[in-house]
UniProtKB/TrEMBL annotation, chain A:
<feature type="domain" description="Rieske">
    <location>
        <begin position="7"/>
        <end position="103"/>
    </location>
</feature>
<dbReference type="GO" id="GO:0016705">
    <property type="term" value="F:oxidoreductase activity, acting on paired donors, with incorporation or reduction of molecular oxygen"/>
</dbReference>
<keyword id="KW-0408">Iron</keyword>
<keyword id="KW-0001">2Fe-2S</keyword>
<dbReference type="GO" id="GO:0051537">
    <property type="term" value="F:2 iron, 2 sulfur cluster binding"/>
</dbReference>
<comment type="similarity">
    <text>Belongs to the bacterial ring-hydroxylating dioxygenase ferredoxin component family.</text>
</comment>
<dbReference type="GO" id="GO:0046872">
    <property type="term" value="F:metal ion binding"/>
</dbReference>
<dbReference type="InterPro" id="IPR012747">
    <property type="entry name" value="MocE_2FeS"/>
</dbReference>
<dbReference type="InterPro" id="IPR017941">
    <property type="entry name" value="Rieske_2Fe-2S"/>
</dbReference>
TrEMBL record, chain B:
<dbReference type="Pfam" id="PF07992">
    <property type="entry name" value="Pyr_redox_2"/>
</dbReference>
<dbReference type="InterPro" id="IPR036188">
    <property type="entry name" value="FAD/NAD-bd_sf"/>
</dbReference>
<feature type="domain" description="FAD/NAD(P)-binding">
    <location>
        <begin position="6"/>
        <end position="302"/>
    </location>
</feature>
<dbReference type="InterPro" id="IPR016156">
    <property type="entry name" value="FAD/NAD-linked_Rdtase_dimer_sf"/>
</dbReference>
<keyword id="KW-0560">Oxidoreductase</keyword>
<keyword id="KW-0274">FAD</keyword>
<dbReference type="Pfam" id="PF14759">
    <property type="entry name" value="Reductase_C"/>
</dbReference>
<dbReference type="InterPro" id="IPR050446">
    <property type="entry name" value="FAD-oxidoreductase/Apoptosis"/>
</dbReference>
<protein>
    <submittedName>
        <fullName>FAD-dependent oxidoreductase</fullName>
    </submittedName>
</protein>
């Protein structure tokens, strides 16, 4: 296992409630979410169906819907919820400290 | 029910989704998918996009590959066509001589390109795009420096022109109608699309009828009614599609702009269903019979009809949705609009422009947008509003400061 580290992704205010933003780090890209309950999560940026960025998708409760073909994932677990997606999304631990969102990658 | 199994004719988008859904819903009897193409079910949208312009030699993007079909216990009969339906004995006859008894039958036969016949000796040389092999044939003509003419300024024609430009060809689009994208998108979006193509070097001849197409000295010469001539190395025609109804007509099923289906996608024979591009159906949101040629509709209807084949009788009524890729921009349309509808613009700045279409009663019936991938979110929200039969105020729709999500909750 490669070493993991906590990376500052954004400020909590950068993401509206029930929304998602894109976060790029090095050559990797992530989607960082804030659910309707105000919780923060992070997943790989691209949909597992085709290479389409989920930050363009719609957050509904704790579900993200990919805008390309409307596949859905459960945000906290990354599990694939609706065709055409069938491969789960990788998730990353998130912590919030003094108004900043960190993800462990 | 007896033990005859489910038979699906047409191994495309709708057929493949229906087969998989029959299994998801627990049907344990036989499922047979009959397709006259030699491939496992594959996606058509990439044919006018990556398959033409990608650097690598294209391969079909499969919907259900053979291992997956095997795992689901779906029998694929490929490279064989259904040639007759015997409704009395519940059997489908195959060109190869086989017979498939069915409990319930699904027609998912799709559509074929509308053929154009023009005066001149080269009308028969024009290329069309529907199948994987068609894409290979077109791709083989797209070498740098070649001149490509596309007849028809619809989505497939425009995507083909963009792919031709990407391959370094000269591209000219000839559209007989007064503007491109007459069907499906409002004029403002069509104008943006046209400008984008022009900026990428596509030439347009719009609103001019075509007199003839001939072959002269190894090139094609298209004569236009204004006296001008367009010379090129290949002609690709994309002027719409005709639903494939041969089987249905021959066995006496009712037709109406395709195989006529009811709101549950059953045909005039209750044991035969239809889904996708081949059928028309009454849409509850629009109060009229429509036929769609759209990827998501084929997918939705394929999934939906599986339940009804198993006895559900659930009406279908998903909001129509269509997307097209134009260079680095995307275009999406949700719902159906008519020229008489009121249009409201929401300017999304860098992300693009979003148009809402309200009917005479102020009900949101459609939304269309062109811009970056980010417009997908907005169109999806608009779709939810359309589904709710919402009557949002034009002011709130026009104000980009008001989140569409807020209108939804209200
Ligand atoms: C080039 C291209 C680009 C497109 N791009 C987009 C896009 O960007 N966005 C979008 O929303 N939509 C797009 N579409 C539309 C979308 O692909 C179609 O709406 C969808 O494929 C329809 O699915 P279907 O299952 O109804 O028909 P099809 O996918 O056409 O499948 C029907 C199948 O049935 C077979 N068949 C017919 N008759 C018989 C018979 N008697 N026996 C056996 N087999 C038979 C056919 O050969 C075919 O394989 C595009 C279509 C094309 C052609
Ligand atoms: S790319 Fe996400 S659902 Fe297809």
């Amino acid at each position: 296992m490669a070493q993991t580290e906590w990376i500052e992704a954004c400020e909590t205010d950068d993401i509206e409630e029930e929304d998602v933003i894109r976060f790029d780090h090095g050559d990797r890209t992530f989607a960082v979410y804030r659910t309707d309950k105000g919780d923060f999560y992070a997943t790989d940026g691209y949909c597992t169906h085709e290479r389409f960025h989920l930050s363009n998708g719609l957050v509904m409760g704790s579900t993200i819907e990919c805008p390309k073909h409307n596949g859905r994932f459960d945000i906290p677990t990354g599990s694939a919820k609706r065709a055409p997606v069938c491969v789960d999304l990788k998730t990353y631990p998130v912590k919030v400290e003094s108004g900043k969102v960190y993800i462990q990658i | 029910m007896n033990n005859y199994g489910m038979v699906i004719v047409g191994a495309g988008e709708a057929g493949a989704r229906a087969a998989a859904e029959l299994r998801s819903r627990g049907w344990t009897g036989e499922v047979t998918l009959v397709g006259d193409e030699r491939h496992a079910p594959y996606e058509r949208p990439p044919l006018s996009k990556q398959a033409l312009s990608g650097e690598e030699a294209p391969a079909p993007v499969t919907i259900l590959d053979r291992p997956r079909l095997d795992a689901l216990g779906i029998r694929l009969v490929s490279g064989d066509a259904a040639v007759r339906i015997d409704r009395a004995s519940h059997e489908v006859l195959l060109a190869g001589g086989g017979k498939l008894p069915y409990e319930r039958l699904l027609l998912a036969t799709g559509a074929n390109p509308r053929k154009l016949t023009l005066p001149g000796d080269a009308s028969g040389d024009m290329l069309y795009l529907r199948k994987f092999e068609d894409a290979l044939a077109i791709r083989s003509r797209l070498a740098a420096g070649r001149r490509i003419v596309v007849i028809g300024g619809g989505f497939i024609g425009l995507e083909t022109a963009a792919s031709a430009r990407a391959a370094g060809c000269e591209a000219t689009v000839i559209e007989v109608a007064p503007r491109i994208l007459m069907r499906g998108v409002p004029e403002a979006i069509a104008a943006t699309v046209e400008a984008l193509h022009r900026a990428n070097g596509v030439d347009f001849r719009i609103g001019i009828p075509i007199d003839s197409v001939n072959r002269e000295d190894g090139e094609y010469v298209i004569a236009l009614a204004d006296g001008s001539r367009v010379r090129c190395d290949a002609v690709v025609t994309g002027i719409g599609a005709v639903p494939e109804t041969t089987l249905a007509a021959e066995c006496g099923l009712e037709l109406d702009n395709g195989v006529k289906a009811d709101e549950c996608l059953a045909t005039s024979d209750p044991d035969i269903f239809a889904a996708g591009d081949c059928c028309s159906f009454p849409h509850p949101l629009y109060g009229k019979r429509i036929r769609l040629e759209a990827w998501r509709n084929a997918q939705d209807q394929g999934t939906h009809v599986a339940g009804n084949m198993l006895g559900d009788r659930a009406p279908d009524g998903a909001v129509p949705w269509f997307w097209s890729d134009q260079y680095d921009r995307t275009l999406q349309v949700s719902g159906l609009s008519e020229p008489s509808h009121t249009t409201v613009l929401r300017d999304l700045g860098e992300a693009g422009k979003l148009y809402f279409h309200l009917d005479g009663d102020g009900r949101l019936v459609s939304a269309s947008a062109m811009g970056t991938a980010g417009i997908g979110k907005e169109i999806r929200l608009a779709e939810m509003l359309i589904e709710q039969r919402a009557h949002p105020s034009p002011e709130s729709l026009a104000d980009a400061g008001i989140r569409l999500k807020a209108l939804l909750r209200a």
